[in-house]
Structure formats: C-alpha cells, structure tokens
Design a protein that fits this description.
Helices cover 39% and strands 17% of the residues. By secondary structure, it is an alpha+beta fold.
Length: 103
C-alpha cells in the first residue's frame, strides 16, 4: 500500500489531497519512535505519519485490520473504506471524485 500512497501523494497533493499515515504497531518492536522515523525515510514516505501506539486512532475510526484506507471528505465524513491491499483503481477513482467535489 505504501508505494501506491506515495504515487497518490505526488499526483494529487497539489489538487488538495492530504494523506496522513497512521502507524498502529502490530509488534512491540514497531513502537519505538526512532524505528518509525527510520522506516518512513527508508520507504520514501513524504506525507505525515502519526504514531498510534495505544490504538486510539485505530479505535476511533473503527479500523480492524492492516492495512485499512479511509477517504474522508472536507467535512470530516468517511466516504470510502478499503481493507487490505488492492482495489487501487477504485480507490483512486474515489479520490478523483472527492477532489472534484471541492468545497
């Protein structure tokens, strides 16, 4: 998923898309801040990533699996949810639709 997020960030950020990665660690060793910083650099992640070690964000947005992508409109309403890898064309179509709505 990260490679596709990098593409969308580069392609749609100028049009108003904001990607925020949320790192909810699956394993104890993934909790260290330094490891998250190193991984984002190594993976070429240029969008913001927040650490969710206590799963507060995970719980608030009803996430139950890695990875989960949510598209939230400008009013803060979740308009799209996809669990797992794949369906990138469908997700990108929704990104374009939401950007076209403006507002």
């Amino acid at each position: 998923m990260i490679p596709q997020l990098r593409v969308w960030h580069e392609k749609y950020e100028p049009a108003g898309l904001t990607i925020v990665g949320v790192h909810s660690p699956e394993f104890f060793w993934e909790k260290a801040y330094d490891r998250v910083v190193e991984a984002t650099k190594r993976l070429g992640v240029r969008y913001p990533v927040v650490q969710d070690n206590d799963f507060a964000i995970w719980s608030r947005w009803g996430v139950r699996a890695w990875p989960t992508a949510l598209l939230v409109d400008r009013k803060g309403v979740v308009r799209y949810r996809h669990v797992g890898e794949g369906d990138y064309a469908e997700t990108e179509a929704m990104i374009r639709r939401l950007l076209a709505e403006g507002g």
